[in-house]
Amino acid sequence: MDFGPYILLASLEGAVTAAVLALTAVGLSLVFGVMRVVNIAHGEFFMLGAVIAWWVAQSMGGHPAVGFAAALVIAPLAVAAIAVAADMTILKRLDYDPERTIVATIGLLYIIQQVTLMTYGPDARPVEAPFDTRLAIPWIERGEGGWQLYWPWGLGTTSYKLAVIGAAGAVLIGVWLLMSRTRIGLVMRATQMDRDMALAFAIPVEKVYALVFGLGAGLAALGAVLIVPIQQAHYLMGADPLLLSFIVVIIGGLGSLPGTVLAAVFIGLSDGIISVFFSPTLAKILATLLVGMVLVFRPQGLFGSRAA
Amino acid sequence: MTENSSTRTTTSRRGAIRTLAGAAAGAATMPLWARYTHAQSAEPIRIGFQVHRTGIGAAYGRWYDRTTQAAVKLINEGGGINGRPVEIVAEDDGTDPKRGAEVVEKFANQHGCDIGFGTLFSHVVIGSAPRAGELKLPYFVVSEGHHVASGMLNRYTLQPGITDVKSQVQAMAPYVTQNLGKKVTMVFPDFAFGHDHRDFFTEAVKREGGEVLAHIAIPPAETSFTKYFPKIPRETEVLYHVMVGPAVLTFVKELGEFFGPQRPEMFGFIDSLEAVAMDSPGLEYLDGTYFWEGMPRHVQADQSDHDKFYRDAVGVDDRGASVSDPTDISTYAHMFGCWETLHVVKEAMETAGYAGPGDRAALVEAVEAMTDMPHSRAHPQGAKVFNGKTHQVFGHQYISRVEDGRLVKVHTTSIEDTYYPDEVDYTTRAL
To answer: Which domains does chain A have, with CATH numbers?
Structure first.
């Protein structure tokens, strides 16, 4: 494949990864930023989103779009509800102590994963995409008769993949509006800045925490619902998103939403491009190296503030 | 890592000493129970079944289990082995080599199994077989890997129920180069099984006057594949694909999306679609492509009585799905290996007059002495020839073409097509 079309294809693939990664990582970042909880079970909320999406889609029947649309609403809400319950029954009892919540969320990871294995089983199951047309992408090249348009071999994407990128962008704008323009966002930011002062101003901090934990998990689940027609729901699928989300959040700065989104786009695109031109292993090596460099030279992340 | 494994060894050694002490205490009471040994000969023969119930091999594990249960039921209805019933002791290895070795150890030391059996994924076989050799536990793998016949493993590891990748790909190469094209690009999973494909198919294509243009290795845990496909050279005439793991459907779908209307000829190992319905959305483009099949998934016009009997016994319908759930597609091209292996074990145990773990060496020798295995109920996939020196069985291979979502058999290789010179003589090794 020629260089130009090749890099376009790599970028498109990377953009799909980046879109889903951004949703998942923003969820993780939100939870850390507001609650100071490092949620190791975040990847499992992602997995639960995919598994519930499969369950909803296959129990609806009818046109695939109906099942998918239902899954898009039900799965994130269900996962958010589970997360809120976990917050109230586990994290709250630990007083959100940073070390103990890490151990607790590790436990949560195994509970969610094994319960899924026991109920849903070990198989990978597909959800049918609501629409899925292959779109060949033209490329412009200077030939004998001047510039001309042609359709390179293998250069294409699907309408669904483009929709994933669009949907993720829309949701991220929604989250940003929620955080910056609404009262509930104001309350969240107040809690993030100074928990004690927020309490003194009669902000129901525990409710805010439950809400944020649910929102974070719901975002991960939403990312999973979007990706599940491309990949498949599987009980072990949470490991990669967790690792990548941590990489993104550390690079972008824990708790910084714009930083997280930028880092997700950067990691997603570079993963796509480096995988295509060199090897997927090298892409992971470089991402991990970058995390190391950031931790050494700018521990607060590229966009984080030092005060924590 | 090193530290960890040495700790584990110490622990298990301690455990072994404890077991030994227990055995010694048992032996001290011998006169009291020795007279009941005759009664004990009606004890079941215990077959340790190492099954990929979870992890990336789960779909295969589910069907290996069903096939094994069906074969054991049949054997027991026919009077068992040497008049003793067969009992399956199943242990999940999580498709994990480290866990695999532990499972083998449990079979030998805790469950008192007569043999170990049933492992599929090559990395798990390679991780587990050395332990089986140390424990002198006959270990019957159903894996397709070339590691048995290559001499990498040991005298106690045998593969009498399924052919190996080297013989399969070597028998496929002439058909591919003569009918589909001579310029081949290979896409395969990046672990032992995939490397067998890479090495032996490349060699075989070269012998046929063809050429492999590119090797594209994909990590077996990968979930998104399009990014690998631009490496497929434009002049490729045949795309050779083989993939395993939970994401195989994504793999084949994305392959179709990548090529769009301009696909080259395609030859795949059915592994890329085992446990996946041929009529899944996005797979329509596969019409006209070719697959290797260990045993044809869809019922063919010339179906043998043995295939029919086997299909009914396991509970598989005409399209290779479970009779109770048409969405549950079997791993039909591989799972016959469990059925055939258990029948080989039965025959060998009867020849050896197998009475208990003391006769394990005699059992290995009895299997090594086997040669011809005729097409029969015990061998529904087809006739086979066992090579006692390399511990590997050889048999027919099938090529199917996809026609309107059906896999239609278009070519059957001879057994001779699959032969290659011996690379090891296990019979010269100590028992």
So the answer is: 4-127+157-297 (1.10.3470)
